[in-house]
Amino acid sequence: MFTGLIKKIGIVQEINSHHGDIQAVLHADKEFVSTLTEGESLSINGVCLTVYNTKDSSFCVDISNETLDVTNLTQLCSGYEVNIETSLTLNDKIDGHLVSGHVDCIAEIIDIKPDSRSYRIGIKLENNYYSKYIIKKGSICIDGVSLTVNNEKKDYFYVNIIPHTWNNTIIKNYKIGTVVNIEIDKIALYVEKLMTNNK
Questions:
Q1: What is the pTM of this model?
Q2: What is residue 67's three-state secondary structure?
Q3: Which value, in Å, is the radius of gyration of the alpha carbons in the chain?
């Protein structure tokens, strides 16, 4: 589990293909990498992946065909920046919202506008099925970042990005047409399942 609060921006050093799935070698500062242990879970752009081959300032993760099919990790290439979050511990505060690291769908950035010191970003879902779970003032996870929905329409919604989030995540690199990972608030799915089973 994660909270959607990004701890570090990493850089892709190398991508190695293995019969369709891929191995990504990621670079981060030595102090951060020294805290990682073999086999632990990290959120990379909102996707829960397993760490191995940790070195001074790099580590590896494997990305399966299934993950490539439903996320934006197909875009990874040398020099690409990614959001990184370490997994939640029982001693941590939950300052964002509970995030599983299981991406539901991808979406496209359709609007970026300055709003005082912040930015308003419009996002269009690739799969409209998930739009019913997105509500104004509700939580949403975009590329691993916990955000609040400002406004929602039939197949798109807006979020507000404060200066701290803009400066400390890959959101500052977004452009119109950028593809992002979306994880909806899992509480909505649980409530729907309970209501369906009780009918």
A1: 0.92
A2: helix
A3: 17
